[in-house]
């Protein structure tokens, strides 16, 4: 089984959300269609900017917690290493 940490952004790429899931495609679909209540829906975070895959849920959760404690510019630099144009990866 695979687990993913992912970073969503809004249309302007000014707000980020970091989450963990075992099915990144399903989870992004839920966010894009407003099926997830709370922060992501309120701020319209529907753009998949970044993700990492893990084989162990504990490692994925630890990475999620680590990234949530990072400063915004660190998160942006991480995203730009693999997605320099901040494109929606769910459309690829």
Can you tell me about this structure?
With 92 residues, the chain is α+β, with helices and mostly antiparallel strands. It has a single domain, classed as GIY-YIG endonuclease, CATH 3.40.1440. The protein is 39% helix and 23% strand. It has four helices and three strands. A three-stranded antiparallel sheet has the order 2-1-3, with helices on both faces. β1 and β2 form a beta hairpin. It is globular, with a radius of gyration of 12 Å. It starts with a strand and ends in a 10-residue tail after the last helix. The relative contact order is 0.24.
SS elements, strand count: 3
- The CATH level-2 architecture is identified as 3-Layer(aba) Sandwich
- Rg over CA atoms, rounded to whole Å, is 12 Å
Provide the CATH topology: GIY-YIG endonuclease
Q: Write down the overall mean pLDDT.
A: 97
By oligomeric state, this entry counts as single chain
- In whole angstroms, the N-to-C terminal distance is 22 Å
CATH superfamily: GIY-YIG endonuclease
Please give the CATH class: Alpha Beta
Give me the secondary-structure category: alpha+beta
Tally of separate domains: 1
Determine the fraction of residues in helical runs and give it as a percent range. 25-40%
Number of helices: 4
Low-confidence stretches: none
Strand content: 15-25%
Task: Characterize the overall form.
Answer: globular
Order of secondary-structure elements: EEHHEHH
Main sheet overview:
3 strands, antiparallel
């Amino acid at each position: 089984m695979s687990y993913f940490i992912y970073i969503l952004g809004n249309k302007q790429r000014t707000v980020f959300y970091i989450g963990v899931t075992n099915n990144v495609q399903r989870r992004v679909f839920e966010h894009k269609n407003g099926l997830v209540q709370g922060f992501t829906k309120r701020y319209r975070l529907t753009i998949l900017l970044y993700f990492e895959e893990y084989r162990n849920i504990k490692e994925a959760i630890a990475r999620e917690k680590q990234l949530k404690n990072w400063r915004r510019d660190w998160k942006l630099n991480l995203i730009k290493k693999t997605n320099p144009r901040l494109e929606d990866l769910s459309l690829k």
